[in-house]
TrEMBL record:
The gene is tbc1d8b. Residues 466-653 form the Rab-GAP TBC domain. It comes from Sphaeramia orbicularis (orbiculate cardinalfish). Its main location: cytoplasm. This is TBC1 domain family member 8B. Residues 974-1020 are annotated as: Disordered.
Length: 1073
């Protein structure tokens, strides 16, 4: 065990200890009297002394000491009862510490680092020993340190903490890593040097495990262009998994809300815990992915057991996984056998056998599965009994639905309608097709058929050889898990079709446009039958999932599904593909496809080094392979060959597409290496796809030509799709699904951050044309603006700000701030640091710059306001303040046209754009006059702005002088007004000659309407009193005569300092009250 470092002197110690191993910094010793030979008389005396004094608990037989070459002081850092235990500690020091110590210059730094590391390991061991029952006291202490050191808002929830080393340059800092819901934090304080790091999960570009010369293994974090390395973690894998889960949680919650809304387990950021939220969610997600189960299922219990496999006549070791509605088993002995048993299919659970701790589960179809050596067999048996009783209800509903509603939509696959099989046809292709069917029937008789079929290596072998046309729809439903979705949602599709009938949205418009582009040469889609079925499926899905709605490539995929599956089955297959098997593929940014292309690039680097050497920029393969992933090769291969690829996809998921992509590149390796540019490479691949055939396909030639865009009849070679798929499995079948999922998580961070960076660059390019900020200042402002948007989302279950972020909108509209968010950020960045009425001023500014009055401010509006206050002329700054005190045009906040299921009001958008284009630049003559109340408030605002300034007294006198001057001018105007009868003449006497009486008459009612109730009452009591007002030109002329005020507003603002202060203060709790 590791010991708290204690100093010892070795002057006489060598008489009691024997050195077993040593190096420059550590010594491993054995106590005399233990081990080989016993140590003679000295060893005997030592052993006797230890026994008599019962000091074995204090003096272990083995120990490790730390020292430095130029010091006589030794520090005890570890002890062990057995040789194996102490050697394990020694090996850890050799692998993790020795290389690191070489970077230190002084012995004191080395000793300080080692001591800090050992103390961290002790704390880590103490914490890890309590994994099953967290020590509340220790966690409370860690939470107090976390709150004290990082000063984050009190709502921020600490998830877990670890001792580790953080590499700052070439020198490691020993400290503590804190992982909270929204932040990764590190703190170290050694020898007076404090290191503090706070990174929000949504800022991370890369998160991966790495190793290099100095570090055997570490965690690499890339954020804001800076690399951060964390090493010497006692439980590195556990730490990395939790970091990965937290980063993925943040990405889903803040950037990828479509997927996040389907995961209620993680919706409340204040309830995220290491054990009960993250670990449970990760296990459930892995469980659902492996067994292709609906999103609603959660892993509840896991039991190790043996399952009797009838076709092999032996028991296979594996694990029983139980969820709300499914009993699943997966082998662990390499046989690749798994089975899924829906509770609705269970008819009985026989009385458990206590001698073998076995239980037998009977399912429909006169089949039984016997699980043995189950530790908690009795409780598992009772659980299954109770759950299958509940699920039987849904089965009855499903059977009733089949009987009543099945005629509401098409119940036949289009292939059976437009290409029925001729039973009497005995040509070679049909004979081979019959042989395939016979092979599958034999497989069904041995392994079962339907939802409780055994999945084994033989199943995959049959898939690779090709699925018979007659069984394709059934097997697609089974392998994808869509059969379970349909069985548990009886009548759902029919209801969707009825509800979506006649709706008009952007999605339905796009669907109508693409209907006749879906396999246009196939007979099924040259008729109203096929087109109508395609329309119903796509429209129903767009209605079910408006976040996705409809995206291009969905029509191609759905048309192929309709060929082999009934209409409702095709709908559920589409659900399985879009929501489970290809997550985030079919949205505006096709994030899922981009992520898988990044995974594909990684696999190319690993498996095709020759190609990488020739083409260092692999982005070409990303662009050319996009259609491969989006359409599962349907858009590039002939239809009769593409369906074989879809067979493999439904069985093995995206792994099958990746394997086939590698096989295609491998097949064309020589040609690709010899090509000179991208266009030539594209031509090579297109010719290759045109040459792919399916020699065993029984489809007629008209159907086989349907999906080929450019069939090259002069091709000198043909490639059979079955051979290509078989080669892909033989060469790249070792790629594991777990590795693909891990690579997906790693690359998803990078892909989303790249898209976010593109958005930022586009926004900055647009805004930079209208403001005086430099590019770097705009970059920092954008980061502050975006973080402020997210800060209101961090600690709220359903934050309204999350609704403001829509990646499908224009770049400028993707991030917007409501008033509360805006007021906090404006408080941090406003140039008048002394202003006391923050909330009132920010409300007026927000109202003024919200041009479309939708209650939201975008980045451009925000920057233009700041630019005016920071860098504009005195006149423009004063005009901005003047306009703050004018009443709004109307009291209604107008909302922008919203996207949704209803028809989008395009006319409203066009009118809004036209107004923006025709909007002319405002002059000071266009500004309306301000009345008494507004002018008094304007004066108060000036006083508040000047409050606390070093020249406050002179500024106050200047404002008082201007106010007095304007009021005297008003008094003169009133006196001149008394002998005159028309109101227009009296007003023209005290205003500038440049303004007409018509303008005054038009502004006076508006001003009087917005007066305070008190002023209105005064006016009502004395009708002879005339309401007075001032124009902006009068106010400007008066203030220009006061050098103190002009100097105050023309004083330059240190923008860089302001930005730095705002960045440091943005996370402080006081800014979020």
């Amino acid at each position: 065990m590791w010991l708290k470092p204690e100093e010892i002197l070795l002057k006489n110690a060598f008489k009691l200890w024997v050195t077993e191993k040593d190096n420059e910094y550590f010594v491993l010793q054995r106590r005399r009297g233990y081990g080989e030979g016993g140590g003679g008389l000295t060893g005997l005396l030592v052993g006797t002394l230890d026994t008599v004094l019962d000091s074995t608990s204090k003096v272990a037989p083995f120990r490790i000491l730390h020292h430095t070459p130029d010091s006589q002081v030794y520090w005890s850092i570890a002890c062990g009862v057995t040789k194996e235990e102490i050697y394990q500690h020694w090996d850890w020091l050799q692998q993790n510490i020795m290389r690191t110590l070489s970077v230190f210059d002084s012995s004191e730094d080395i000793t300080s680092f080692v001591q800090g590391k050992i103390r961290g390991l002790i704390a880590e061991e103490g914490k890890s020993s309590l994994v099953l029952e967290d020590d509340p006291e220790k966690f409370r202490e860690a939470l107090l340190r976390f709150e004290k050191w990082f000063e984050l808002p009190p709502e921020e929830k600490l998830v877990t903490y670890y001792s580790c080393s953080y590499w700052k340059g070439k020198v490691p800092c020993q400290g503590w890593l804190y992982l909270s819901t929204n932040f990764l934090c590190f703190y170290s304080y050694l020898l007076g040097a404090e290191v503090k790091l706070v990174i929000s999960w949504d800022e991370i570009w890369r998160l991966e495990k790495t190793s290099n010369v100095l570090l055997t293994e570490s965690i690499h974090v890339l954020a804001h262009g800076e690399d951060h390395y964390f090493s010497m973690l006692l439980h590195l894998n556990e730490t990395f998994v939790i970091m990965e889960q937290l980063a993925n949680y943040s990405i889903k919650r803040l950037f990828d809300k479509e997927a996040f809304q389907r995961e209620p387990a993680l919706c409340d950021p204040l309830q995220i815990t290491k054990r009960y939220s993250l670990e449970a969610h990760a296990k459930s997600e892995q469980f659902r992915t492996f067994f292709r189960l609906p999103k609603e299922e959660n892993l509840l219990e896991v039991h190790e057991s043996f399952l009797w496999v009838p076709f092999s006549h032996f028991n296979t070791l594996g694990k029983i996984c139980l969820s709300e509605n499914y009993l699943c088993f997966a082998s662990q002995d390499g046989s690749q056998c798994h089975v899924i048993i829906p509770m609705r299919e269970v008819v009985n659970v026989e009385k458990p056998d206590s001698s073998t701790r076995a239980l037998t589960v009977c399912v429909r179809g006169k089949r039984a599965l016997r699980f043995s050596e189950v530790r908690d067999y009795q409780r598992l048996s009772n659980t299954i009994r109770s759950r299958c009783g509940i699920s039987a209800i849904s089965l009855c509903c499903y059977m009733l639905y089949i009987f009543i509603f099945s005629k509401a939509v098409s119940t036949e696959a289009l292939m059976t309608v437009f290409h029925p099989q001729d039973v009497e046809n005995l040509d070679p292709k049909m004979l081979k097709e019959k042989m395939k069917e016979q092979s599958w029937n034999i497989h069904f008789s041995e392994y079962g058929r339907g939802t409780s079929m055994f999945f084994t290596r033989k199943t995959r072998d049959l898939i690779v050889r090709g699925v018979p046309e007659a069984l394709r729809g059934e097997l697609w439903m089974l392998f994808s898990g869509a059969v379970n979705d349909m069985a548990t949602h009886p009548g759902y599709y029919t209801e969707l079709v009825e509800q979506s009938l006649g709706t008009s949205t952007l999605a339905t418009d796009e669907i109508e446009r693409d209907l006749h582009r879906s396999l246009p040469e196939h007979p099924a889609f040259q008729s109203d039958t096929g087109i109508s079925a395609l329309r119903r499926v796509l429209t129903a899905y767009a209605y079910r999932n408006p976040k996705i709605g409809y995206c291009q490539a969905m029509n191609i995929l759905t048309s192929v599904l309709l060929l082999y599956a009934k209409e409702e089955e095709a709908f559920w297959l589409l659900v399985a593909v879009c929501e489970r098997m290809l997550p985030d593929y079919f949205n505006r940014r096709i994030i899922g496809a981009l992520v898988d292309q990044a995974v594909f690039e990684d696999l190319i680097r690993e498996n095709l080094p020759q190609l990488v050497e020739h083409m260092t920029d692999l982005s070409f393969f990303s662009s050319v392979s996009l259609s491969w992933f989006l359409t599962l090769f349907i858009s590039v291969l002939p239809i009769e060959s593409a369906v074989n690829v879809v067979d493999c996809f439904f069985y093995d998921g995206i792994k099958a597409i990746l394997q086939l992509g590698l096989a295609v590149l491998d097949y064309n390796m020589e040609a690709l290496i010899s090509c000179h540019d991208d266009a030539e490479a594209v031509t090579i691949l297109n010719k290759f796809f045109d040459s792919v055939t399916n020699k065993d396909s029984p489809l007629p030639p008209t159907v086989q030509q349907a999906s080929v865009g450019n069939n090259d009849k002069t091709s000198h070679f043909n490639v059979d799709i079955s051979e290509l798929i078989r080669e892909a499995y033989e060469k790249y079948g070792t790629i594991r699904s777990e590795e693909v999922e891990s690579s997906r998580k790693k690359n998803k961070l990078y892909v989303i951050q790249t898209l976010e960076d593109t958005t930022k660059q586009n926004v900055i390019r647009v805004v930079s044309q209208e403001v005086r900020f430099s590019a770097s200042q705009l970059d920092e402002l954008y980061n502050l603006f975006k973080r402020q948007h997210f800060l209101s989302c961090y600690w709220t279950i359903n934050s309204p700000a999350l609704l403001h972020h829509d990646p499908s909108l224009a770049y400028l509209e993707q991030y917007q701030l409501g008033f509360q968010q805006f007021s906090i950020l404006f408080f941090l960045l406003e140039p008048w640091a002394f202003c006391t009425t923050k909330s009132t001023l920010s409300l007026w500014v927000f109202r003024l710059i919200d041009e479309n009055q939708d209650g939201l401010v975008n980045f451009k509006e925000f920057c233009c306001a700041l630019d005016t206050l920071y860098s504009n002329s005195f006149t423009n700054k004063l005009k901005f303040l003047f306009k703050l005190h004018l009443p709004p045009e109307d009291g209604v906040i107008r909302k922008s046209p919203e996207r949704g299921r209803g028809k989008v009001d395009l006319q409203a958008y066009l009118k809004q754009w036209q107004n923006e284009i025709l909007k002319k630049e405002e002059t000071i003559k266009d500004l309306p006059r301000i009345n008494q109340t507004q002018f008094i408030q304007f004066s108060k605002t000036l006083y508040n702005i000047f409050h606390g300034d070093p020249e406050e007294e002179s500024l106050y006198r200047a404002v008082a002088h201007v106010t007095s001057l304007l009021l005297r001018m008003e008094e003169v105007g009133r006196r001149l007004q008394e002998p005159s009868s028309p109101a227009e003449t009296s007003k023209s006497a005290h205003v500038s000659g440049e303004e007409s009486s018509a303008e005054d008459a038009s502004t006076t009612p508006e001003s009087s309407d917005t007066s305070s109730p008190h002023n209105s009452q005064d006016a009502a009591s004395d009708l002879t009193e005339v309401e007075w007002s001032f124009s902006f030109e009068q106010v400007l002329a008066s203030l220009l005569n006061e050098p103190a005020i002009v100097g105050f507003f023309e004083r330059p603002v240190d923008i860089q300092t302001k930005l730095a202060q705002a960045k440091a203060a943005q996370l402080k709790p006081k800014t979020h009250k």
